[in-house]
Amino acid sequence: MPETYIRPELVCPAGTPAALRTAVDAGADAVYCGFQNETNARNFPGLNFTPAELEQSLGYAHARNAKVLLAVNTFPPAGKFELWRDAVDIAARLGVDAMIVGDMGVADYAAKTYPNLRLHLSVQAGASSPEAIRFYCQAFGIKRVVLPRILTVAEIAELHREIPCEIEAFIFGNIGMMAEGRCSLTNYATGLSTNMDGVCSPAADVHYEDDKEGNLTTRLGPFMIDCFAGGENAGYPTICKGRYTCSASPEAYYAFEEPVSLNLSALLPDLMRAGVTALKIEGRQRSRAYVKAVVAAFRKAVDDVMAGNAPALANLLALTEGHRETQGAYRSKAWR
Amino acid sequence: MPRSPRAEPPASSLRALLQNIPGFLLAAAPLAVIQPILSRIASHVATDRPELFARLGVHARKRFLIDPTDLPFVLVLSPDNNRPHLRAYRRTENPAHHAAISGKFFILLDMIDGTLDGDALFFTRDLRVSGDTEAVVALRNALDDFEGSALDSVVSSFGPLAKPAALAVSALRSMQASHRHA
User: Fold this and answer.
1) CA-CA distance, B6 to A32, in Å (whole number)?
2) Residue A196: which domain range?
3) Which residue of A153, A328, B96, B174 has the lowest C-beta tally within 10 Å?
4) Cα angle, residue A60 at apex, residues A284 and A17 outer, rounded to 5°
5) Does A94 touch chain B (CB under 8 A)?
6) Testing the interface with A: which of B49, B113, B119, B128 to mutate, by most A Cβ within 10 A?
7) B17-25: long-range contacts at Cβ-Cβ below 8 A with a sequence spacing of 24 or more?
8) Do A203 and B146 touch (CB under 8 A)?
9) B17-181: which CATH topology?
10) Integer distance in angstroms from the first to the last C-alpha of chain B?
11) What ipTM is given for this predicted complex?
12) Is residue A52 part of a domain?
């Protein structure tokens, strides 16, 4: 007798209204997005939504039975809470299906002011223990936790039995192995904070230089973070994925992470069996082409699993960073 | 730190032919002939897609050098809402610009039309950027909110007489795309 699963929600990224429509049309159950400011962790130039665009997008998604989740998941610094409060107010007024929060102050304001507004705990909160997650649930009525990408599937299954909320797990995109919401590398190099300004490797501080031999040098602020030989695949210009030398290693090496993308398509049945309610695709900064290809591939894979078939795994390697993919810590903590 | 370059497979004659078609067709075209078409494209986009300029913000007044590496000329785009400007230059003229984007013509076109992912093209080094990276990111994101085919939109603005040219470009594009995926 085939195994039965509870149908998981496929949660997909959108950096623009066009990307949101693309995600919905490709089969997203829910789409997450952010405003054009520091209140979300993809605060990049030309990206994100105005309140008017969010309102129109909600209409588009709801007419097609898809949800819209708003990320208000950065951490307001002292004296700047107003921007985050306004984002919560707008989200509540427009009727988003849930708001993704990372900061306790933002969660507290939202929970007290709009008790009917559904709250999800962002991966930015870095909550991975039952104690931490239960605290957020009890204090702010969190309904779902987005787990950091540091747990094995077995650990997720165990966690599921110990917490009173739903679990959302990343299945594709940035591997993000750092202690999430705590990374200060960009802040160190540029003065802007990933966690408070919402921007990892701000584009204004990124500089590319091609030489005559075809080598590509990448710099962030005053720091050279990598040099790719001609024809060698490149990665994002982030400090955590750069190659460095040190006294112990005169040969440049990846000191933190490598340019590689998470792809858990082969682990979908295991995740669903472990009690994961929502499967998240990373990449609000990516294009409509990425959204369409990745969402369609995972829509089909999830539907295959639900139908009792082995998931058909589309080849998404062309969209991965560095043209490499991994199951990261979900398979084994010894992966790196 | 640079590693030795990845070995490239020998180019087949078909691939070489496909890759060279845009340059071959346009090699002899005087810029004076191309320029009115480019001006028409700029004004059409400004009229048809004004939301593009809001997304560009402060970068709307910058000059973007667009270098289709397989064409005999480069383009400079100044997407100012009031005076949008798209002008062709011979590559040797080295026109002033704030940011530059380069890649093969059909790759750039497919990225603008939302069928290829800019980040993936950057990862594979099919797309190169230099200069003001923030302006390039803003332009990329603004164009990505440009739903539907920008090419189709522009071609339709030229009326039915442009249809044969559009069909030819479409056919060439399909051939290039299928070759990329082969």
Assistant:
1) 38
2) 191-254
3) B96
4) 30
5) no
6) B119
7) B18/B172, B18/B175, B18/B176, B18/B179, B19/B70, B19/B104, B19/B176, B20/B70, B21/B172, B22/B68, B22/B70, B22/B71, B22/B105, B22/B106, B22/B172, B23/B70, B23/B71, B23/B72
8) no
9) Nonspecific Lipid-transfer Protein; Chain A (3.30.1050)
10) 32
11) 0.93
12) yes
Residue A4 lies in a domain: no
Q: How confident is chain A (336 residues) per 10-residue block, as mean pLDDT?
A: 84 98 98 98 97 98 98 97 98 98 98 98 96 98 96 96 98 83 91 95 96 94 94 91 92 90 94 97 96 96 93 85 89 76
DSSP assignment of A17-84, as one string?
HHHHHHHHHHT-SEEEE-BSSTTSS---TT-SB-HHHHHHHHHHHHHTT-EEEEEE-S-PPTT-HHHH
- Phi, psi (deg, nearest 5) at residue A119: -115, 135
Q: Which residues of B lie closer than 8 Å to A, measured between beta carbons? A: 1-6, 8, 55-57, 59, 111, 114-120, 122-125, 128-130, 132-142, 144-147
Cα gap B85→B83, rounded to integer Å: 6
Chain A residue with minimal CA distance to B123? A234
How many contacts (CB atoms, under 8 Å) link A and B?
131
Contact A45 B122 (CB under 8 A): no
Domain ranges of chain B: 17-181
Task: Give the whole-angstrom CA distance, residue B76 versus residue B98.
Answer: 10
Query: Residue A142: what pLDDT?
Result: 98
CA distance A87 to chain B (A): 19
Predicted local distance difference test score (pLDDT) of residue B14 = 57
A316 and A230 co-located in one domain? no
Q: What does the pLDDT look like over B100-142, one tens digit per residue?
A: 999 999 899 889 888 999 999 999 999 999 999 999 999 999 9
Last residue of a domain, one of A208, A224, A254: A254
Contact B144 A287 (CB under 8 A): yes
pTM of the entire predicted model: 0.90
Whether residue A148 sits in one domain with residue A290: yes
Q: What residues of B are in contact with residue A17 (Cβ under 8 Å)?
A: 145
Structure confidence by residue, pLDDT tens digits, A28-65: 999 999 999 999 999 999 999 999 999 999 999 999 99
Say yes or no: A117 and A230 in one domain.
Answer: no
- Best of A261, A287, A317, A324 to substitute, by most chain B Cβ atoms within 10 angstroms, is A287
DSSP A266: G
Contact B119 A235 (CB under 8 A): no
Chain A stretch 6-45, residues whose beta carbon is closer than 8 A to a beta carbon of chain B: 15-19, 21-22, 44-45
Residue holding tokens 């992966």?
A335
Cα three-residue angle A334-A13-A235, rounded to 5 degrees: 50
Q: How many domains are contained in chain A?
A: 2
H helix or E strand, kind and range, residue B74: strand B73-78
Given CB atoms, is A323 within the 8 Å cutoff of chain B? yes
Residue at a domain's end among A212, A230, A254: A254
